[in-house]
Specification:
alpha/beta; six-stranded mixed beta sheet; five-stranded mixed beta sheet; 29% strand
Length: 208
């Protein structure tokens, strides 16, 4: 399975993406807390670019709640749920743990724990990074401890995250491969190629 992974679009226009993929995932922050219209434009463009491809998404902390409602109405939201595609189970969590900026979609660590406790999946779409991974701001880790605990307990094969704009990369946390996406706002995305056993996973960071 080949997955196109995008996040932190923040109202940036992007053109046609020339990749042959089986699934497209958007891991939050379609917008800049300014309504739902740009999220609608993104989904429309992805459907045009990938007309026969499954699209899955979660909102980010900068997306107002109407974005989640729109994604639900389009049948592409996996916030708080799982979806199986060609034998691979995807699960998702949108929003983020609290920030200093009082952004539209923030959850307490207890709320994150409550959402995640019913999710078991192969590939997790979680906007905020787990605590201690790609989450350092001014020397402090600002990721979610509830996400970190869930990852260690449920052991998803892959966890795709976003949110902290400064980082892009891959890390291994015991049984889980963490893929931290760069921002579409800065022209970055990733292609994740997995085999049926998840023994061979190739992550290719691309420019869009």
């Amino acid at each position: 399975m080949k997955i196109l992974a995008m996040a932190d679009i923040h109202n940036r226009e992007f053109g046609k993406i020339d990749e042959d993929v089986d699934v497209v995932i958007v891991v939050g922050d379609f917008t800049n807390a300014d309504g739902v219209e740009f999220a609608k434009k993104v989904v429309e463009k992805l459907k045009e670019n990938f007309p026969d491809t499954k699209i899955l998404a979660v909102p980010g902390n900068m997306d107002v709640k109407d974005v989640l409602s729109f994604l639900e109405s389009e049948g592409i939201s996996i916030h708080g749920k799982t979806v199986k595609v060609d034998g691979v189970t995807f699960g998702g969590l949108g929003g983020s743990n609290p920030t200093p900026f009082n952004t539209p979609f923030e959850l307490s660590e207890d709320e994150i724990k409550s959402v995640l406790e019913k999710i078991e999946c192969d590939v997790a779409l979680i906007h905020t990074p787990p605590f201690g991974y790609f989450d350092w701001i001014a020397g402090n880790s600002v990721g979610s401890k509830a996400v970190e605990e869930w990852m260690k307990e449920k052991k998803p094969k892959i966890l795709v995250c976003a949110h902290i704009h400064e980082y892009e990369g891959v890390a291994k946390a015991k049984d889980t491969l963490i893929v931290k996406l760069g921002t579409v706002m800065n022209g970055k995305a990733a292609v994740i190629d997995i085999d049926e056993s998840f023994e061979n996973v190739i992550v290719r960071f691309i420019k869009i």
